């Protein structure tokens, strides 16, 4: 099953070329990397164009306006599907997600899972360099989302995923409004509610070493109020 790895970027010039090089070592014949750049002012888009010229398995999708993680991924998903991808992956470009874990996600999808989540919160999953406060905030956010949504998924906010194309064709990408990390909650929740098989495999999630984090108070606030809205929408559809 041919896979496309979607890499959303905004000011990732320190990481992009290293990430593409690392992924090159785990790609199979026919697999691709799609860089989705939201008009980075630091030259990330130009680096992506050069890499695409040098490496035939690299593609670039330029977006002129920074709209957030959700719209960037949705544009990337549509592009990957139009190119015939059978598996579509999402992962961070800052090495928070280990490129060496990509084959593990693909293998689970090829074994029958519809959505594979690289999870910090199943046995074996770790966050090795986080402090106690940050761990508590992250775990609390996941618990909050799980309780309100009634979800069994342990890492609803995780951003290292592999979808079968039929999932993305079914869950109505047009209806996803989340722009920040609430996007991760919504796509996992919609997938599970649609009856698809969701599998979580343990990963180690580490902090970026280069570049600046995109996390902000606005992103956290969106996730807080958006989760109850998701639940209300689900209830309304059942009435």
UniProtKB/TrEMBL annotation:
Residues 4-170 form the Glycosyltransferase 2-like domain. GO terms for cellular component: membrane. InterPro entries: DPM1-like, Glyco_trans_2-like, Nucleotide-diphossugar_trans. Gene3D superfamilies: Spore Coat Polysaccharide Biosynthesis Protein SpsA, Chain A. CDD domains: DPM1_like. It holds the Pfam family Glycos_transf_2. One of its GO terms (biological process) is glycolipid biosynthetic process. Keywords: Glycosyltransferase, Transferase. The keyword Glycosyltransferase applies. GO terms for molecular function: dolichyl-phosphate beta-D-mannosyltransferase activity. Belongs to the glycosyltransferase 2 family. This is Unannotated protein. The lineage of its organism: unclassified sequences, metagenomes, ecological metagenomes.
């Amino acid at each position: 099953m041919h896979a496309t790895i979607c890499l959303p970027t905004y000011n990732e010039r320190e990481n992009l070329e290293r990430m593409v090089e690392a992924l090159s070592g785990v790609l199979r014949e026919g697999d691709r990397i799609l860089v989705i750049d939201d008009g980075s002012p630091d030259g990330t888009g130009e680096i992506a164009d050069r890499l695409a010229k040098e490496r035939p398995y690299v593609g670039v999708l330029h977006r002129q306006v920074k709209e957030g993680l959700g719209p960037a991924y949705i544009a990337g998903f549509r592009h990957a599907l139009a190119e015939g991808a059978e598996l579509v992956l999402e992962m961070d470009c800052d090495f928070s997600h280990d490129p060496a874990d990509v084959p593990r996600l693909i293998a689970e999808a090829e074994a029958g899972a519809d959505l594979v989540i690289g999870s910090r919160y199943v046995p074996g999953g770790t966050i090795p360099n986080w402090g106690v406060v940050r761990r508590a905030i992250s775990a609390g956010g996941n618990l909050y989302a799980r309780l309100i949504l009634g979800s069994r998924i342990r890492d609803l906010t995780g951003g290292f995923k592999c979808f079968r194309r039929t999932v993305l064709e079914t869950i109505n990408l047009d209806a996803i409004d989340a722009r920040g990390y609430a996007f991760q909650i919504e796509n996992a929740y919609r997938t599970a509610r649609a009856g698809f098989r969701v599998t979580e495999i343990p990963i180690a999630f580490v902090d970026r070493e280069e570049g600046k984090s995109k996390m902000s108070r606005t992103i956290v606030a969106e996730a807080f109020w958006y989760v109850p809205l998701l639940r209300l929408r689900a209830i309304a559809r059942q009435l």
